[in-house]
Specification:
By secondary structure, the chain is an alpha+beta fold. Helices cover 41% and strands 15% of the residues. The protein has helices spanning 26-33, 47-62, 71-76, 94-102, 113-116, 123-129, 151-154, 159-175, 182-188, and strands spanning 9-14, 19-24, 37-42, 68-69, 91-92, 135-141. The strands form three sheets. The chain has a two-stranded antiparallel ribbon with strand order 1-2. A two-stranded antiparallel ribbon has the order 3-6. Strands 4-5 form a two-stranded parallel sheet. Strand 4, helix 3 and strand 5 (91-92) form a beta-alpha-beta unit. It is globular and about 50 Å long.
């Protein structure tokens, strides 16, 4: 998921440094993950929903040590109808995390009420339920993807909307900004 083009790609995954929320840029995504093929999809949301999603992302970035990647869910998702995940609110798989971010927005409006409480979703279900509302920007081999093609997405917005998004970003990022530890500050002095 990205709210900032290729500058910040957010997922729940595993890296050498982390087992949970992963924030990468395009270069890291390509060189660490080394995907063979990708899909870039675009979904426009109203500004208030953008703000909600941005707030949830920044909250999770600020509390990343409280959440983990769930290998249990990864391997048992095909059996989710007989598994009990109700008490597990601190671990995610990637498709589940993105679904968690969009439930309650217009992106998830078409999802049946019975499915909204069950956020454990397989990648295939994610394609069917979420990406069905998207515009495909690119699907195919990563070697053929031109990152400049994303510029067309930003041209869909007028300056006023882009300005509002920048204001929201700044306000929410400041809200979750880590405060310097006073003891460390005194030691540096």
């Amino acid at each position: 998921l990205s709210l900032a083009g290729l500058d910040e790609i957010i997922s729940f995954a595993t890296t050498n440094q982390n087992y949970g929320l992963v924030v990468e840029n395009w270069f890291d995504f390509c060189h660490i993950r080394k995907p063979k093929s990708i899909g870039v999809h675009f979904i426009d949301v109203p500004i208030d929903e953008y703000e909600k999603i941005k707030n949830m992302i920044e909250f999770h970035k600020a509390h990343t040590n409280e959440y983990t990647y769930s290998f249990k869910k990864l391997f048992t998702t095909p059996f989710k109808t007989i598994m009990n995940y109700k008490d597990d609110h601190t671990s995610f798989i990637c498709s589940e995390f993105v679904y968690y971010l969009v439930v309650g927005t217009s992106i998830g409006d078409h999802i049946p009420e019975s499915d909204r409480n069950n956020i454990l979703i397989t990648p295939e279900e994610f394609r069917e339920k979420i990406l069905a509302k998207s515009t495909i920007v690119y699907e195919g081999g990563i070697e053929n993807f031109n990152p400049a093609s994303l510029q067309a997405v930003y041209k869909l917005y007028d300056d006023s909307t882009l300005s509002k998004k920048k204001e929201i970003d700044a306000r929410i990022e400041k809200k979750y900004e880590k405060k310097p530890d006073r003891a460390i500050s005194k030691l540096k002095q």
